[in-house]
């Protein structure tokens, strides 16, 4: 193996590692997801799911206070003052496009990504 | 028939036979490689055993003969594998032709580069062309995210095929 061979190999390794760094950063970025909380259709809170870890958020709706839990980039309705608890039973959501709706309390939470990747590509 | 003419015919025949042998070995390696499951964590990455033959052809004859061997190998290989004119065929074809041209360029215009460096460059070119063609055909630019992984893998695979080709060339499979 000659010196120029080594140069080619090292250049390729450096280039691909740099590429890997570039590639993995925007992936994390375009995966930036938000939980958009709405009461009667109006946005009251925008939860950054990538930054906020293990928190509880109180949302005051038509009947009372609904509690959202954020944990490890996922989100669920922990409790809600509605009679049938459909929203609570739905469990965790984390993918863009997923929605939890509590109709009686007029609260909805939708997961929204700010990247260009949509459900079809996934 | 004058003696010089006879020698010329003999030389031509020898070349024809050698190229035919190279094509058949390349096709066999191509087919053998398809039998094994992909040893890499990334789909689409492979060793590129057939590239050993491309390197030898390029070194012993030249880029025109190399192109003939590569094109025939991809055509026959795809007919054997049943992927003729499919996506896999188009990827193989573009990768093989582009890498041949790059390898020719490297060995011709960059003195001091051994078969190993040429082989690594060819492997990288092969993967780049494949990703570009796949991205173009599927209209998915996200496929380029995949390129750095493939380029990184092309270093060991290119190294291996280069070492193998050098071993054969050192044994003296020379034209003339």
Largest sheet report of chain B: none
Overall pLDDT of chain B? 87
Molecular shape of chain B: globular
| Euclidean distance between termini CA atoms of chain B | 21 Å
Order of helices and strands of chain B: HHHHHH
Q: Give the number of DSSP strands of chain A.
A: 7
> Roughly how much helix do the residues of chain B carry, as a percent range?
over 70%
How would a textbook summarize the main sheet of chain A?
4 strands, antiparallel
- Strand fraction band of chain A? 35-45%
Within the CATH hierarchy, at the fold level, what is the topology of chain B?
Arp2/3 complex 21 kDa subunit ARPC3
Global mean pLDDT of chain A: 82
Could you tell me the radius of gyration of chain A in angstroms? Answer: 21 Å
Number of domains of chain B: 1
| Helix count, DSSP H or I runs of 4 or more residues of chain B | 6
Rg over CA atoms of chain B: 17 Å
What's the count of strands of chain B?
Answer: 0
In a few lines, what is going on in this structure?
The complex is a heterodimer of chains A (122) and B (176). Chain A is of the alpha+beta class and 122 residues long.
């Amino acid at each position: 193996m000659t010196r120029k061979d080594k140069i080619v190999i090292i250049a390729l390794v450096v280039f691909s590692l740099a590429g890997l760094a570039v590639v993995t950063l925007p992936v994390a970025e375009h995966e930036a997801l938000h939980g958009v909380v709405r009461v009667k259709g109006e946005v009251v809170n925008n939860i950054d799911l990538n930054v906020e870890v293990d928190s509880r958020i109180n949302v005051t709706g038509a009947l009372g206070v609904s509690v959202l839990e954020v944990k490890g980039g996922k989100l669920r309705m922990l409790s809600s003052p509605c009679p049938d608890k459909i929203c609570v039973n739905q469990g965790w959501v984390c993918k863009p496009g997923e929605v939890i709706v509590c109709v009686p309390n007029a609260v909805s939470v939708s997961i929204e990504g700010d990247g260009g990747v949509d459900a079809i590509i996934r | 028939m004058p003696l010089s003419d006879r020698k010329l015919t003999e030389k031509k025949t020898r070349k024809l036979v050698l190229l035919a042998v190279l094509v058949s070995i390349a096709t066999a390696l191509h087919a053998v490689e398809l039998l094994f499951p992909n040893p890499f964590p990334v789909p689409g990455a492979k060793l590129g055993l057939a590239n050993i033959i491309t390197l030898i052809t390029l070194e012993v004859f030249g880029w025109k003969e190399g192109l003939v061997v590569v094109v025939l190998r991809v055509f026959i290989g795809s007919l054997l594998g049943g992927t003729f004119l499919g996506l896999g065929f188009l990827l193989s074809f573009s990768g093989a032709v582009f890498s041949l041209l790059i390898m020719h360029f490297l060995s011709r215009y960059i003195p001091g580069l051994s078969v190993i460096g040429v082989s690594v460059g060819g492997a990288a070119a092969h993967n780049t062309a494949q990703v570009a063609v796949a991205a173009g055909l599927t209209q998915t630019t996200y496929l380029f995210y995949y390129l750095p992984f493939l380029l990184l893998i092309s270093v060991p695979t290119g190294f291996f095929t280069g070492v193998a080709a050098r071993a054969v060339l050192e044994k003296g499979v020379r034209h003339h």
